Each structure stands twice: as C-alpha cells, then as structure tokens.
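Sample 1 of the test manifest.
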Amino acid sequence: MSSNDKENVKNQTDTESATSSSGTGSDSPNRVPAETSSGLNLAALQEYLTEKLGFLGLGDEEEAVSSGIKALEETTLDGIVDYIDKKKCKNIITMAGAGISTSAGIPDFRSVGTGLYHNLAKYNLPHPQAIFELNFFQENPKPFFVLAKELYPGSFKPTLCHYFIRLLNDKGMLLRHYTQNIDTLERVAEVPEQKLVEAHGTFYTGHCLSCRKQYELEWMKERIFKDEIPICETCPGVVKPDIVFFGENLPDKFHDSVEDDFAKCDLLIILGSSLVVNPFAGLIDLPSSMTPRLLINNEKVGRASGLKSMMGLSGGLEYDKKGNTRDVAWIGDCDDGCQLLADKLGWGDELKALVKAEHEKIDRINKKEAAPQKKKAQKS
Ligand SMILES: [Zn+2]
C-alpha cells in the first residue's frame, strides 16, 4: 500500500468530479471578443489565463518553431520510436481510458444503451447516471451493486495493451500510469501500485461510508455476489467500493502526483481515452511544450477546445496544426497499436510471450481456486 492510501475523509465541497463531463462543456462556444472595448487586450487576457489556468502560452512554441527545434524528426510512430531510442526515455507517462479494456470484454458502462442498464429498469432510477451519484446511493445503494456484480473485476484478463504498459515499466521507462478505468486490470497485469494513479478510483478497496473502515476486494465481492448490500462489520454503514462517484473528490494520489510527474515527463502516451472527462483530459496539456505526445485510439481526439483555440492559446493535441513536431495520432485498436509500437521497438515477441505467460498464469490460478471448492463439494 502506498503512503497515499491513507484513510481520508473526502472533502465534499470539492467540485471536481471524475464523471461530471460528457464532453460537450469544453467545446461550448463561449464568445470571448478578440478585441474588447473594455481596454483588456488579447495579450493581457492570454497572460491572465495562462497564469490562472496553467495554459501554456504561445511563446514556447513559436520560439521552438522559429529556431527550428523539433520535438520529433517525423510525426509518425517511427518518429516516436526514433525519439525513444535517442532520448533513452525513462519518464514515460501513459494515460488510459476504457478503450484499453474493451478487448478484455469489459463493457463501457458509462455509455447508456450498452445493455447494462436494462437490468436496472425495475429500480426506477431518476436518470442512468444516478447510479453513480452519492446522494442517490445513500438513499438506495441496490442498483449500484446490481451493476457492480456485472462489472466486477476478477473474471477479466488484462489486454495486450495492459501488458505493454507493464513492459514499459519492466524496462525502467515508465514514470506513471494514469488510468480512468476502475476495472483493476492494471493491477492484475502487475503494474506496481506505486506506478499507478487510478484517477477515478478502484473496485480494489472500499470504505464504510459512515466510519471509513477499509475493506478489500474479496470481502466486498463475496457479499455482492450473494446479492447482498455490503454492510460494515463495526457499524451499520454501507461499504462502497472506492470508485469515484459524482460529487466526490478524485483520489489524493491524483492531486499529489500530477505536478511532479508531468514536469518530468519525457513522452506522453494516451491510450484508448476519448479525452472528454475532466480533470483527467486536461492532463495532456501539462508536459512541457517540447514533450512528444502519442495518441493510440480508435479516433482522433483531444484537439484544442473552441475557447482555447479562439484565444490563440495552445492546449489539446495539435496533430493538424502547422508546424506540429510533437503530436502523433495512431488511429486504430489499442492492442494493435501497442503491438506495432512494440514491434518497432524490437520488443514485439517479448510482449507476445509476456501476454501468453501471464494469461496462462491467470488460468492456472482460476483453476486452483475452483479446485478446492470442487473437493469440498465431493467430501460433503
Ligand atoms: Zn462502518
């Protein structure tokens, strides 16, 4: 357990919520006049926003472009591989979303209409998202646990993409892995806990909502699979898995790690995220303006929002911007993209062997776990 895993009573007044944005907010055309009549000029406004919001100003990039400094020789996967080789990257940050887990069979539970919500019809949710709202949960935790049972980690195997992240770590190149996923597959893939920031929390642990006593995955799972609501052993409180609900803070580890990590970052790899949920999506703007960013995703996402680009501020990924030498988009399946990148780095076979060995190990463990139950059944 990391030092950040301390018991903490969440400050309910923090308005940052992992699940609060559907992506439309950042693109809303907030009209900010380019030349205001109130005496505020654009440069001053830019400076103000840069300072207030931590946006990178135009300066860095214009300087880089005019001085001919390139982040990458070419903005392709080969360019990234060349950069990794030359730079000897050891502070790579990976950021991941649901796209890295879909090939494991985990449904994207946040999208309505995936079928997961059908089972919940009888619970008369005021709206589908209510299931992840703390207020609703406190009144009626049942629908959440019905959904949790379907989503529960343990029956899924990490994907090739998860093992690519593990391989980056095994090679001493991974600084940190930030994930939006709550499926714990990074842990199953044995990415060390200190390298993980589970930005939207995890099913791995849970806490009593009343006394904050901590419970482990197995304890909660046992009860949830018996269709019980997990109740604290020392008080009448409900035990809620530590996934971040609407109206809850992101974990302390997120806030504690971000600044130092992104200052050190020598390559950012974004995997399977649509980059619409804040504050997670905003992480892409934090590395220095000369740090390359690679997106592996089934669509080109993360470009500057309307407001920022209108302000002439950098922000977002800039694959299509003139003079871009840092951002690369590889469009397709995350596993395919990671395998291709591994191939180009000369680790292709190693990655395949790792996936095979680890999946076999998981199968053996599952068999072992099933075996004593069978024996017990035969004896009785
Ligand atoms: Zn309790």
